[in-house]
Amino acid sequence: MNYAIILNVLGNLLRFLGLVMVVPLLVAFYYGDSLLPFAVAILVTGVLGIVISYRYEAEGDWKIREGFAIVAFGWLTAAVFGSIPYLLDGITPINALFESMSGFTTTGATILQDIESHSRSILFWRNMTQWLGGMGIIMLFIAILPKLSVAGRQLFRAEAPGPTEDKIKPRIRETARILWTVYVAISAIQAALLMLAGMSLYDAVTHTFTTMSTGGFSPYAEGIAAFHSPLIEGIITVFMFIAGANFALHYRTLYADRQSLIKDNEFKFYTLIVLTATAILTFSLWNDMGENILLSFRYAIFQVVSIVTTTGYATADFNMWTDSARIVLLAVMFIGGCAGSTAGGIKVVRFLLLLKYSQNALFRSIHPKAVKPIKFNNKTVPEEIMQAIVSFAVIYVMIFAVSTALLSLLGMELISSITASIATLGNIGPGFNAVGPMSNFDVVPALGKLLLIANMWIGRLEVFTVIVMLTPEFWRR
Amino acid sequence: MNYAIILNVLGNLLRFLGLVMVVPLLVAFYYGDSLLPFAVAILVTGVLGIVISYRYEAEGDWKIREGFAIVAFGWLTAAVFGSIPYLLDGITPINALFESMSGFTTTGATILQDIESHSRSILFWRNMTQWLGGMGIIMLFIAILPKLSVAGRQLFRAEAPGPTEDKIKPRIRETARILWTVYVAISAIQAALLMLAGMSLYDAVTHTFTTMSTGGFSPYAEGIAAFHSPLIEGIITVFMFIAGANFALHYRTLYADRQSLIKDNEFKFYTLIVLTATAILTFSLWNDMGENILLSFRYAIFQVVSIVTTTGYATADFNMWTDSARIVLLAVMFIGGCAGSTAGGIKVVRFLLLLKYSQNALFRSIHPKAVKPIKFNNKTVPEEIMQAIVSFAVIYVMIFAVSTALLSLLGMELISSITASIATLGNIGPGFNAVGPMSNFDVVPALGKLLLIANMWIGRLEVFTVIVMLTPEFWRR
Ligand SMILES: [K+]
Ligand SMILES: [K+]
């Protein structure tokens, strides 16, 4: 393992983090908030970043192990140093780390009990960490994971706009630049539309941060419900849906082939899931709760898109809905958005391929000697990719089960344990009961918080990146 | 499709069913119960069986499709005709079918509200259907499924005492005879031990019926708790554990190699699961409920073995335990017993192989070019078997999710929906809350009962057998 390279990258990450913290510092200055939290954070993060990145010169190339370590410790480092402003705002260390990890992983689970009691600048930083996390995820999916052969690399590589396998290294910067341009451009459009719909600049920017990253933090306790505006809900629904789709396809749609999205198997299935779940939820809300059908649809489509894309915004306290409505949300929590988006979860493409694989097995059970390949976007899916996808799903479900069991053993009620586990592992944010959208995660015991921090970290990094470091093979030699 | 062969086998099955119903008729005679329910059932079933089996002569050999159809419709036929005595006992048609399917699939979920109000002979028949279902399952696993290449045939074939692939046909009878001898012999030992422990002949036989089949029905509302005897609980625990292990290995252990069980990877993992879950549950009961540690252990080991083996007996109302205790039971509900046993569920061997497959994928993510086969009992597991196992798990979980969603949409509470689904699909019997061990399934709405009947049927027949008939390929040509 080339530790120098890892430390060099982490050092550069700290420098970058110190630099971007200047933005909330300016916000604090504008609103007359205390400058101390950000000034100290910038100093600590920036100086340490400069020292480390100069002390450890980058030599040679990343190999697979270094790649895993950089990604995993990169997110951890961002979460740890990003929590400094919270600490100086008086939040306890474990809660500060929880909130910061929830930000950088775009989870949106919060331990803040009275959100609006915190300063505008702290809440700005909180939402901004999600936008930065979203950038990191796009980078990870399109540029790094394909190189690390994690959980279906060729699939994601095929979707990337530029690079081919042998040319990835020199093109990482270029790919990242292209995709971030798309990310920033769509963000700018959303913020402008939200302002046209009546939001202040502050509200528009902070909510754009957490829509595009499918993060779900809001500076208001009520979340999107605070605005009481169908127009704002509509805009946010559209942009959540965009953020939950593959950014490489967005790039292609904008710059190459207008039909890129519509032709994509994953995008079609993603749309189908959203429409089906919305239809069922609309019916359920209308039937059970005697709501007006249009109002039911308004709540249903917003909440389904919010959960499928793993954003986690709420326009209603969906925890108070009947179980026949809650089950729809619980079911889609396990799917998540598309690969190459900022969404978390198992991802639509994996889900789709597991279904195709099973259908194929049924076919083989009648025709044992027939060979029928599994296709995705008209290309045959190789066996090693299926293995990676299957194993992802198995490990994901195992972590979910162990996490649920541990939370229950720590004394949490069953539904809260189940949904707290999937909401953090899937980077969704809110769950049901004790961790519902109008509650917060501060009720979780301290050990449980550490567990959920690990869930967010593992879930965000496509599971393998973290779990592989627990195998003896990773550290051997 | 050769319908004549299918009908011929089903006709013979009905003749057999009509014949064995003479046993509860004799019980009814002995206890002075009404003879009508069994007399009518014998007449209808027997006559129809004779007519059909003579009308449709068996010609040619089963092919794959015929095999699937015979197994699936065989269980359905048994459930339908086995429900006649319940109907004549005054139970509604849907409830009678539910109880009968629950019997023949060895599930043990009941719709009887006041069990002890029913006659001794009806309750005898109810338990006997489970013992017959258990016989059917052993036959299915060891003799039929290997031929149908379902969900890992070579694995199970390897465990069967006699046949090799090309010789299966002539040996089905022989294999079945050997295994049923083991089944009957172990049953006789259990019944004798239960009588020595103080049970009446009736109680010993009926409870042996539902232990060896991992069925879980009892003629008493309180189940095994009715006996208040640690000795009886101990005997039943041991025999549930035996019934949840592979009967082909029991045969080998008895007649060939004493170490057959101990050397088997699946049996080792099965034992590990039971011990681990018992340890956690003992601690949890002791910690949460202030129970004496020995009493906690007594409850814990009985309940863990009962649920892992998918028997479903209870010595306590485990639904009243805290969620930290209930989570242990919920977790093992998804695993089930060993292949080739009478237990249901995903099965330990599939679970073990999914773990090995995932571990292998983690290894491959660090060493992309290394080839490392997956081993089970020192043999390499071929790719098509892994696909069958993975697909089994995917379809199983999908059915579980859809079933849970449908029950919730029908208005059932979430935990009840979750556990009713897994308890029927895994052929366990009781779940939590509305369908807890001291409650019954009569609270489920009629549509929900039909769904759960389907769950029991699908789960018992290793999923593929039923699901494959829903594919267009099955009916083509
Ligand atoms: K989120
Ligand atoms: K059972």
Automatic annotation (TrEMBL), chains A, B:
It is a multi-pass membrane protein. One of its GO terms (molecular function) is potassium:chloride symporter activity. One of its GO terms (cellular component) is plasma membrane. Pfam families: TrkH. It is found in: Cell inner membrane. It comes from the Archaea. The keyword Transmembrane applies. Keywords: Cell inner membrane, Cell membrane, Ion transport, Membrane, Potassium, Potassium transport, Transmembrane, Transmembrane helix, Transport. InterPro entries: Cat_transpt, TrkH. The chain crosses the membrane at residues 12-32, 38-56, 68-88, 128-148, 178-205, 225-249, 269-287, 293-315, 327-346, 385-407, 414-432, 452-471. Belongs to the TrkH potassium transport family. This is TrkH family potassium uptake protein. It comes from Methanolobus zinderi. The lineage of its organism: Archaea, Methanobacteriati, Methanobacteriota, Stenosarchaea group, Methanomicrobia.
